[in-house]
Amino acid sequence: MDVMELLRGRRTYRRFLQKAVPEEVIQDIIEAARLSSAGSNRQATSLVIVHQPADVEKVNALVKWAAFLPPEQGTPKPGEQPTLYVAVVQDTRVSGDLNTDTGIALANMTLAAWAKGVGSCIMGAINRPKLTALLGLPEHEKLHTMVAFGYPAHKSYIVPLQTDNKYYLDAEGNYCVPKRSKEQIARYL
Ligand SMILES: Cc1cc2nc3c(=O)[nH]c(=O)nc-3n(C[C@H](O)[C@H](O)[C@H](O)COP(=O)(O)O)c2cc1C
């Protein structure tokens, strides 16, 4: 698929089919993070793959979905939950702008997954103390984000941003994501 087409479809998905993400796609996600650019090539981002159903279940209880929607609309119900989480971790012993590096890794990982039809939700509203303990992270590792993955059970599409940046559901329960126009975000000097 054309990369611009991939970028349009690589939205946030929050309800998933109960079908495991194949190991081949997990390997692509890891490879996409490995290949990411980093300032000074510092490579301080690493991943913890949470793929066993019992562990995925434990993570489900420690993340928050869709702040702009009431829980009955935005939180996946049993039978709609992700089938894979990837914890994105930073080595705090390394100095520099780790958040920019990690953001690039997140973009690459979610795009690589989407290229294989696997949707994702990057999650910052997470219970870090409990997840840090669950994942067994050592002192020097900081949990940046969890990324939920799975085959989407809904559509998600871009709509023009009018006044409000809040995403919403259409009558079929698909996500509508308002984005600014190209003219609004870029100007030529
Ligand atoms: C850093 C970051 C943290 C996010 N945290 C959450 C979260 O905790 N829960 C959630 O449901 N969505 C979360 N999202 C998803 C955003 O709400 C979503 O990216 C935004 O609404 C735009 O939708 P789009 O990804 O389809 O463009 C997060 C996204 C990013 C980039």
Give the SSE string: HHEHHEHEHEEEEH
Return the structural class: alpha+beta
Percent helix = 25-40%
Main β-sheet: number of strands, strand sense, barrel status?
4 strands, antiparallel
Poorly predicted residue ranges: none
- Overall pLDDT: 97
* Strand arrangement in the largest pleated sheet: 1-2-4-3
List all distinct small molecules, including ions and cofactors, that are bound in this structure: flavin mononucleotide
Proportion of strand residues: 15-25%
Distance between the termini: 33 Å
Shape: globular
Radius of gyration: 17 Å
Tally of strands: 7
How many helices? The count is 7
Structural features, described:
The chain has 189 residues and is α+β, with helices and mostly antiparallel strands. It is built from 7 helices and 7 strands; from the N terminus they run ααβααβαβαββββα. The chain has helices spanning 3-9, 23-34, 53-60, 71-74, 98-114, 128-135, 182-185, and strands at 45-50, 84-91, 119-123, 141-150, 156-160, 168-169, 175-179. The strands form 2 sheets. Strands 1-2-4-3 form a 4-stranded antiparallel beta sheet, sandwiched between helices. It has a 3-stranded mixed beta sheet with strand order 5-7-6, with no helix packed on it. The radius of gyration is 17 Å and the shape is globular. The structure holds flavin mononucleotide. Flavin mononucleotide binds at residues 11-12, 14, 64-66, 121-125, 156, 167, 177.
